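Team,

Forwarding the record for the chain on the shared tracking sheet. I've put the sequence and predicted structure together so nobody has to dig through attachments.
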Amino acid sequence: MDGADMSGDLLLVEDTSSLSLVYRGILTRAGHEVTCAYTLEEARGLCAGTRPKLVLLDLQLPDGDGLDLLRALQVDAADIPVIVITANGSINRAVEAMRAGATDFLVKPFDEGRLVNAVQNALADRPPAPVQPAPPETGAETGPFHGFIGRSGQMADIYRMIGSIGRSTATVFITGESGTGKEVCARAIHALSNRARKPFVPLNCAAIPRDLLESEVFGHLKGAFTGALSDKPGAAAVADGGTLFLDEICEMDLSLQTKLLRFLQTSMIQPVGAARPQAVDVRIVCATNRDPAEEVRAGRFREDLYYRLHVVPIKMPPLRERRDDIMPIAQDSLLRFAAEEGKAFFGFDEHVVTILLSRPWPGNVRQLLNVIRNIVVLHDGPLVTPGMLPTEITLGAVEAGSDAPMPVPDERQAVVAPVITGSMATLVGRPLSDVEREFIEATIEHCGGSVPRAARMLELSPSTIYRKLESWNAAERREDA
């Protein structure tokens, strides 16, 4: 370019001439001025003497690694967004580039719409850089991070990752046990993206009957099937321009997985009963409490869909692995629930702190929140005392062999006895599995036989209840045989 000012240009670094020509044509038609470089050395020279407003960077160059240029730009011109281009099968390289500071990535082959959208999104988000929360110092208080409460090192890593990938359009796959905050994570990713002003649409794949799931995702036209009394846009259309969160993705029927894969490849949806597909611009964030790789091995989840979705993985840590967060979460929720219920709570008795820190919390943050909500609803402050704790916590605090429980002060014993001689006394001594079944079945009956309603009340996945019901019925059939 002979040292010309290219401040209004995009710099395309692609060594394959035919592809460079195609990409340049697409971007020119979209209204962009494009300068092309074919080697790493040429790209370095252009970046050194000029200032593009965006760089499209192929990672595989004939004279070096595109990551070297990316890292140099992060030092010298961190406000210039970089979209990396990589070949199919090199997803790990793309993830490495994202961690090194890339704004987004494209996997060959990609269509015209995907290229234009990636460029427009990156330019719309310029110049602000993503939020990079610093790891909390030992003993320092850390405020809420987009719905999260926690100051542990594990959560600081999560915050950094969310900040890094927020601006990207890359698909995110969140895994973790139930109650660890997977949807909170998805909402934080959306809030930090340039799609934050567009809809965030959550869809629980386990809570929708299989025969209605396609309609819920892609929509339907009036008369497409019995009960389709009017046109209905699907979640993908509602989320156009924003984020579609597919929770419990491993519960999705295999036939719908095929259609979801096609949607991810083409960005086109076809409502049930529609003759023509329509284009939508949606970022996919999905989550599961299962091991997705194991689901693939078992044949319950398509391998090609897994690799298409599993681009940027985030694993949410269970609460037992970040015990430093237990009391900050408990304190925050205590004050919040007390304000909602008009109660006077402001803190915890020291013996309660000992008990809460000693529990394994198999239900994770959700279980802890439920315990605090139970205390606030049934009691009043100013302090939470041992006698206010639900029986499931007080019994667990003194049972042997439960994840090395910490010792409970002597005065606690005098408080436990009255609790277990009340309405819960009939449960003491019975196997937990029997109590669980009786409670779940009673809740379903209370909800008029509706498993989804019971699941919402119990804060469980409907699929979890269905599996439990099936296992109980199977056990009865074996006994009757």
